Request: fold
Amino acid sequence: MKTVAENIALGAAARDKTEAVETPFERFRASFFASKVASVALVVLCSLIFVAVFAGFISPTNPYDLAQVSVLDSKLPPGAKSFEGTAFWLGTDGAGRDLLSAMIYGLRISLGVGVMSGIVAMIIGAAFGLIAAYFGGRTENIIMRIVDIQLSFPAILVALILLAILGKGVDKIIIALIIVQWAYYARTVRGSALVERNKEYIEAATCLAIGHRRILFRHLLPNCMPPLIVVGTLQTASAISLEATLSFLGVGLPVSEPSLGLLIANGFDYMLSGKYWISFFPGVALLITIVSINLVGDQLRDVLNPRLER
Amino acid sequence: MMTPQNAMLEVKDLTKNFVKRLDMAGKIAQRLGSNIREETVHAVDSVSFTIEKGEVVGLVGESGCGKSTLGRMIAGILPPTAGGISFKGVEFTAMTQEEGEAAALAIQMIFQDPFASLNPRMRVEDIIGEASVIHGMTDLKERSDYVGDMMERVGLGREYIRRYPHQFSGGQRQRIGIARALAVQPEFLVCDEAIAALDVSIQAQVINLFMDLREDLDLTYLFISHDLSVVEHISDRVVIMYLGRIVETAPTDELFDKPNHPYTTALLNEVPRLDQRGIEYEPVSGEIPSPLDPPPGCHFHPRCPHVTDRCTIEVPVLREIAPGRLSACHLNDQ
Ligand SMILES: Nc1ncnc2c1ncn2[C@@H]1O[C@H](COP(=O)(O)OP(=O)(O)O)[C@@H](O)[C@H]1O
Ligand code: SF4
Ligand SMILES: [Mg+2]
Reply:
């Protein structure tokens, strides 16, 4: 037999279940994890981010510390022991750096560059897209003409030209990626804001004399977030691969701060002499990173699809 | 008689045109000799009327005749193309910033779609309470009590305050929309097809709510509907619109007893009436003409059973045919 207290607790639990305030976020979370592939991709992505953030603690050696690097160890195959006896699990690169450590730091730079440029481009693009959709008229025409012109050129071409002007450096490549990307965000946000703007809740807010800025950022923007998040994820993946491409071409990052792309480029010379690992492992890491981001992004798109939203 | 001084709302020669501008392709096609042109919809065409304090005015017409556009201009959501709106004797355009804001808050709108009219990402507390905090009717500390009071006033339990719109039924959502409007302490409500999207069983409840609020809060209403039978029991006066123009206005019982305009007569024939059971059901015949290309003269002439040559050329003016009654039909000149 149950005690009175237990019965009360059961009753409260049952009531909580039916009365529980199901927030839009809770609904979103439940449908996201319905896909196994996406769940795994998210776990992989989170691990990669964790490794990148705590590179200093996780990495076996510091590849930038010249004191820890010996040319005698250069181009050792995976699993080989160093001159001093420590194992290089993934081998070493041309300069004798531990490849695993170089990849962890490279991942940090690749992800950092992609995420930083993605966030800034998203903020700039979203602001312009919202303003264009909300105010319309000349403002919209000017903003959208610039967006159209920018999007009519291939991203890699624009980035190459910008880097030719700006020069090398992490900050320079972030600036170039922001300039290349903001227009995608502006176009996405404008598209959804145009739909949302005509809904009656925006008219109601106007009627309640709520200021423009508040309507833009408290009412319009939150309802344009779903497509923005999707584009943000997928765009970050393409920013990372664009940075890798640019670094591979030798116009992105300085050799002192190698991203995954630059590691691939550095090892490429040794490919033909059978020392595959110097390019291969950074390539696999880049692939896993981009694929997992894309899988997460695709699932976000399915889950946040407004046509499926109840 | 109605004098502009004590009229709560006066609308004068109010006009709204929507111009569909040509895009680049259209402009090129036009250059090449295509007959594409900029299209202008005369959604509201020089409309004038007044509403007294405490009155309930029904605005009726077929879909697309400009009722919502007129309501939106009055509610300050849409700027007029021409003409003026005065609230308590002061023109909107002549108001100072503070007066304008006070008038904007005093005139609130209840929308048709109980789903699109509530921000899906806000909790009921924010939806109802946001504007009243901004405008100082309450403050953040008192907000949930204030919102709870508003919810009870419209027949919702205050325990639902933390919920999101999707957790309510259509009728409940419409009540949230009403509470949101009441929270800024309005004097005038524009109800645009406010019950059209609801189940028939719920329509009567919401209408009763409107009437109770009128008593309690001394509200004035412009009640927009495409259906005459909806406004019959709640309106003191009815305004009939056809393709952007007012064709008749009269006290409700007079309009139902003795409609003057042929269009009103046609609309009344669509309303199933107890005292006319057995009489042949006769819908308004013919299509509604496109507002892009309205017929010349009397807009109603292609569908009017009494049409004369004059009707196809000359626009009938809206004029007094009896005390308190206006109609725009050439038949009244004979
Ligand atoms: N934002 C708009 N842009 C262009 N045309 C519009 C717009 N709003 C309404 N219209 C046109 O104006 C006319 C009147 O519309 P509306 O006021 O919604 O009519 P009702 O509410 O009586 O059904 C319609 O022909 C409609 O297509
Ligand atoms: S003016 Fe002529 S066409 Fe228009 S309603 Fe009167 S009789 Fe009919
Ligand atoms: Mg309408």
User: Anything to note?
Assistant: Confidence is low (pLDDT under 50) at residues 277-281 of chain B. The longest strand of chain B covers residues 7-20.
